[in-house]
Each structure stands twice: as structure tokens, then as C-alpha cells.
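Dear colleague,

Thank you for sharing your sequence with our group. We've completed the structure prediction you requested, and as agreed, I am returning the results in plain text so they can be pasted directly into your records. Please verify that the sequence below matches your submission; if there's any discrepancy, let me know and we will rerun it promptly.
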Amino acid sequence: MFKLPSTTIALIIVCSGSIIGPLGMAGVNIAIPNLAEDLNASAKMIAWMPTLYLLSSVMFMLPCGKIADNYGRKRVYASGLALNALASLMCALATSIEWVLFWRFIQGAAGAMIFGIGVAIITSVTPDNKRGMALGTSAACVYIGLSAAPAMGGWLTEMWGWRAVFYSQIPLVLMLLITIKLFLQGEWKNDKKSPFDWWGTVIFSLFALCLVLGLSDLPRMSGWLLTLLSITFLMLFIVHQSRSRRPLIRVQMFLESRVFSLSLSTSFLMYASNFSLAFLLSLYLQYIKGLSPAHAGKIVLLQAVSMAIMAPLAGKFADKIQPRLLATLGCIIVMIGFFLLSLLTVNSSTTYISGSLLLLGIGFGLFSTPNNNAIMGAVDKSELGVASSSMNLSRTIGNLFGMSLINLIVQYYLGDSTFSAQNSPALMSTISLAFKMSLGFVILASCISALRGRA
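Please find the predicted C-alpha cells below.
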């Protein structure tokens, strides 16, 4: 009887999870206008939907990586899938925006377990000379999920309402859990368990919480105080980790490898620029251009489609070409795309938007896999779980930082008013400023990427 090797089975399972996961992110973004109207939610409350998901992911990313290294990466990955299914069900049953926001926070923790550990599983079972291709395939599946999610989210919302977007994830996750139980044999963890750093977890969680609350409350004095407090907690976390015998992450890893530290910095800036894109374009296309959810979803998916095409090609090249060259080229192409979007007006055509998204997708496809390969190749195999979590943490903190600034911009221009066509001038000002901010992030990322050195 023909039997697939464990490497192939692990790759199939992680890739399947990478396709399903974006339904909880990109698919929900398209459903936001419908959800806001149904639950009578203000613009300020709606802006917290992606932010709370990210906040939870940041808070739990490093602890999940450490737990996975100690107790098993497959076990933590499967637990994350199960928790994601539960959170999706509860969001679908919600009768208030507050209930949705609570379960989005829980879903963010599940996302930390899934995306923080998936790359570590692939790296654990894949030979070094094939790692780039495997990571490229995994990244392509994330982008395939991101490609399908807006269109599927728009179609489900039009046919059955926003709740269907959450319900649709549940059977897919259950099928994947059954597949893991039946076909993925073995476990990947360290031979010797290291004690868990509870104090480090608490300090890091306080940093993330104060950062989000502080940025969302600027320019008030309380916002400045919370932001300053978040910086204090971050410095305390770094000092604590450097002195701890059982750190969540060895801060020396950043000093030992310039490639590791600068690749993470580049990742932070690139994802800070990009995460709010689907959220903002969903509002622009539906409220300002008057498009249906399904039509808006089809336009937004262009970026992810081009990413899905480029990522495996970039992964193949990443095994042979220095990551710095490919990743920096990707940054420059993304920079051009955001420059075009920063010039967006109420009269911009869908063709203009589609061309900009195509550039963003090609650029991100070239950037992400070589950058990830550089990060995972710069650490010892005993720290793959922490390195994978660090990689996803830089991405998630970048997403969180960028989205927190979007919350600030939304509050400044729209306050407690609801999203509507009548508020289109304020909404357009919000979108324009947000894209200019993203352009600034990408310019800085391009410079850092070029300076990272040879892997």
C-alpha cells in the first residue's frame, strides 16, 4: 500500500491550515459592513475587530512557541485548530458587538497556536536544502487562503449574511483535525523540557495591552501615558529575558545573528504597512464606490492571488539566491504599489486599484518566503519553535502596530459615528492618510532589508 512520507503529510496539513486560517481574517473583513449594520456597531467598535485578534495573537505567540518546544508542536497546533472552531461558532451566534469582540480575542489566541507553530513543524521535518521550497509552498497556501477568503466572504455575506463567514470555518477545521489524528504520526519537541517563564509572559502581555490601548487613545494624556508604559514594559521584558534561566526567547539570538534581527525588523515594518489594506479597501469599495460585498471581495483578492503565484517561485530561488536580494526587490515593488494607493481619490477607477494590488501581491510574494527562510536558517534546531513564533510575532506585532494607528486615525476623523456613505469625506481622509503611513513603513523596510547582510 502506497504511503506518503511524514514530511509530505506534515506539509499538506500545515498548508491546509494556512488556507483555512485566512477565512477568520480576510473573509471577516469583507463582512464587516454587514455585521456593523446588523449589530448597530459604531466605527470605533468595528475598528477593534481586527485589533483584538492581533492583540491576542501577540500576547500568546511566544508562550505558545515555548510550550510547543516542550510538549509537542503537533499537539499545540491541533489544539489551536480546535479553539479556532469554537471561537468561530461563538462569533456566529453572537447577538452584540461586545460578544463578537470577546470571541475574536479568543480566536486570536488560536491563531497564535496555528500560525506560530505551523512553520516550526515544516522546518522540523524538512531538510535544510529543501526548506525554502517548503516554506514557499506554505506561504503560497496562506496567500491562496487570502485569495479565496475575500471572494468567499463576500459571497457568503450576500447569500446568508455575515454569520455564514464564521460558520463556514467549522466543518473545514473539524476535517483537518480528523486528518491529523489519522495520518500525522509522531511528535516534534525538545528532548529536555525547559521551565516556563510565567513572569516573562505576564510582562510581555502587559506590553502588548498598553501599546494597543495607548495608541488608540492618543493624543490624550492617558494615551501618551499608556504608550510610555508599554515601552517601559518592553524594556523590562528584554532585561528579564536576558537574565532569566528559562526565557521565552533568548535575547542573545538577536545579537548572535544580524540576519535574524534585521530580517525580523523588516518583517515588522512590512506587515505594519499591509495588514489594514483589506479592511480599508473593503470600506472604500463598499461605502465610497458603492460596490457589493462580492464585487469588493473579488477586487481585494487580486493581491493575494499574485502573492500565491510568486511565493513558491520565490521559495525555490531562496534556496539558491541570497534572501537579502530577493526580499529587498520585493520591498521596492511593494513601495511602488503603496505609492499608487497613496494617490487614491473618490474618482479612482477599479482598474487603477487592481493594478496597485497586483504590484503589492508580486512584491510581498517575493519578500515573504526569502525573509522567512533567512530567519529560520539563522537559529539552532533546538530553538525552531521559538524562532517560528518570533517570526510570526514580528509579523503580528507589525500588524497590531499598524492597525492600532488605523484605530487612532479612524477615531480622529470619524469618532463614534457609524460607517456610512454620508461620512465618505472623512472616510476618504482616513484611507488616504493610512496609505501614506504604509508607504513610509515600506521605505524604511527596504533600507533595513538591504543592510541585513548575507545569510
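Summary note from our side: The chain has a mean pLDDT of 80.

Kind regards,
the structure core
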